[in-house]
Amino acid sequence: MGLPATTPRPPRGPQKRITALEAGQRETNTRLGRIEDTLRTSSHLFELMHERLEHLEEGQRELVVGQRELVEGHRELVVGHRELVEGQREVVGRLDQLVEATIRDRTAWVEAHQRIADGQEALQIEVASSHRSFQHEVVETRRSLQQELVETRQSFQQELLETRRSFQHELTETRRAIVDRLDRVVEATIRDRTASSDRIGAVERRLDVVERRLSEREPPR
User: Fold this and answer.
1) What DSSP string runs through 147-192?
2) pLDDT tens digits, 68-97
3) Using only C-alpha atoms, what is the Rg of the chain?
4) What angle do CA 94, 95, 100 make, to 5 degrees?
């Protein structure tokens, strides 16, 4: 702070000088008090500034450490960015390969689809032609089968008639043979029975003869 401005000198005289001195002393005391207050305020401000400087130094230290960490992080970021660039290059290369493979696959798929479409069209034409040929063959086969069926039915009926006639003839012949055998059996039975009757009659006659002879040999009682 600057020195206070000097007051004009009062008129000469002891009392006036004393009064002036006292007034100057009081003003000086007042100014000294203000100076002390200013010094106390300045001291407090210096203390606050010192604390702030200490905080500022700590902040600067932390700032330096942070800047160092930031530099290290920046270096790591640069390395990571380089690795990212390399990775992006690899990704771009792989994407290029994938695009080329996709184009090749798409081209091959289009060609295969075209071949399938062509084959399907040819197959449809062949199926239609085969279907018409098959229908014609079915019609011809049906006619042939119907004709063969009619002929087989007629032949079967003819064979059935021939078989029935032959069976009736054989049955008639068998009946005749059975009748002839029965006649022979009856005749043989009759002959056997007649012969048996003759034999029985002969035996009875012999028994009669024997009885008569026995009765003739017995003495009279």
Assistant:
1) HHHHHHHHHHHHHHHHHHHHHHHHHHHHHHHHHHHHHHHHHHHHHH
2) 888 888 888 888 888 888 888 888 888 888
3) 80
4) 95
